[in-house]
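[audit] Reproducing an earlier prediction to check determinism. Same input, same settings, fresh worker. If the tokens differ from the archived copy the diff job will pick it up downstream; this log only records the rerun itself.
[audit] input (508 residues):
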Amino acid sequence: MSGPEDDEYRDGDYQDAAFADETGRPEGQGEIPSPEDAVISHVLDAIRGGDGLDAIPATSTAISFGEFLAADAELDRRWPETVMEPSLEKITALVDALGDPHRGYPVVHLTGTNGKTSTARMIDAILTEIGLRTGRYTSPHLQRATERINVDNRPITPERYVEIYRDVLPFVELVDAKHGALSKFEVLTAMGFAAFADAPVEAAIIEVGLGGTWDATNVADATVAVITPIGVDHVEYLGSDILGIAREKAGIIKPGSVAVLAAQDKEVAQVLLDRAIAVDAQVAREGVEFGVRDREIAVGGQRISLQGLGGVVDDIFLPLHGEHQASNAALALAAAEALVGAGPRQPLDPDAIRAAFARVQSPGRLERLAAGEGGPTVLVDAAHNPHGARALAAAITTEFRFTQLVGVISVMQDKDVRGILQELEPVLNEVVVTANSSARAMDADELGALATEVFGGARVSVEPQLALAVEQASELAEEAGLSGVGVLITGSVVTAGEARTLFGKEPA
């Protein structure tokens, strides 16, 4: 069982109802305040704050949002999401008690190191456009836990989140008593399955939390298994052997399914193919059965031509930046086609495909937060490992023309921080290092010392508060004038989420 792979949160790091003791240590690492006092305090802060991370949504009342915060606080007291053990016993017992809600609809299951959430959003958009009612379960969330469970391409409301939690809670308590306490991620996964069964949906797009074989989501037997590019990340949980990581992720390929595989290193690809052969799964490979035929930069994104399983679709506008997003689009198209059985004899409507991609959003993925009118363009990206930082740097290089780009960087201390900085160094003129609100964030001064080794002291500033770091970066960028200057906020999922909130972006 495990939690979000790209989710860098740990116990107590969540922006919704994150409770720490007076030392700032995460829950479970110090004296825990009474639930009643903590919840009341947190709700009152949200009501009074207005512009904080937990500001009450316009569609919610103070009471209903307080109930949501309380429910999420209860979940935060469970085993942290990153707990991983080689067993699906507890989550299997839970979904069995719930009546196997995960078997009521076909599933597209995604794993990989980077690109899962963007690809999941694209698959969701295509299936919606061709008329299916969809559910989407992704992690991590950027700003609010409701982002993880989506029906009809929209996050569920805080009120619905509470309803689902209360519906599954009696069954959770039964499993807790018989098998031991479920983790937060296991409960959230069951909540997602239950929400989709209740809707009901006609297809579910499910993203793994961590790994594949032993991830809680793997109780579902996917019709289509999607594997995005695999690299080394989460070494403390998955190890540093990339072939071992590939074997773990290959576990989502089930007997009789279709495996839709992104381009991989040769040895990694062989591991995935071996698994597909072993379980008699069909295979569709990027660069062979599907792929990107053509790509050109366009205002607000890119224009692409894709080879799908059903044929070529030209003149697709994708409002996302980077070659990696074009590859994600090809992967998404093939996955959607595989799910509905589309092929050369029965292709999907090209206009529906174009319409779907044209409305895709991927918050926190090279997203523009400020347009650069009278100030610098501000971009945010959730890159938190060298592989993601490399893709980010490539997109900045090919698709933007900054005369001065200043980075605002906050990373988690257990990441390959030097590797991230080295990938970003060529595209950033200066950096302001900072710290997000997570207890796991690297200390700003420590990060500054590492950044100095990579960038040189003259290019590095330290500002421990994120909001002030963004202000300082804007000032540094503007020293080069008001044209062609930008600020890039990156280094962590938490950093990206807090930046979106800072700029008034609603959870999506």
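[audit] rerun output stored. Observation attached for the diff report: Residues 9-35, 47-53 have pLDDT under 50 and may be disordered.
[audit] end
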